[in-house]
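SEQUENCE, STRUCTURE TOKENS:
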Amino acid sequence: TNLFKRLQALFDSADLLVTPTLTRTALPLDTDLFDPFEMDGRYYDGIRTHWYPWTMVFNMTGHPAITLPSGLARDGLPVGIQFVTRWGSDEQLLRDAAIFEQAMGIPGQPPDVI
């Protein structure tokens, strides 16, 4: 409840929070989720707390959040951006996401994969 209230209070002065989705691009497919992983030349123990710390909090509070593709990283892998809004503002979040997608030129359908 305290976390929810603190996050909700952020929307007293902002309509939208924007964060990265992950702290780095995708991990190799053979990564054991319980093993340490490398990020920017350093090794970390907890994938959850170090690879996607920005998504967990909103899963716990129930704030509407959406992740959108936002380009490619230096390693050529895709990266995402996360938008979050006040509780109960799902419709506004979807409008904001659509505006971002249109501005970025993100296609509505993913390409066919053969």
Residues 46 and 113 are 32 Å apart (CA to CA). Helices lie at 2-10, 47-51, 53-61, 90-104. The two ends are 47 Å apart (CA to CA). The first helix runs from residue 2 to 10.
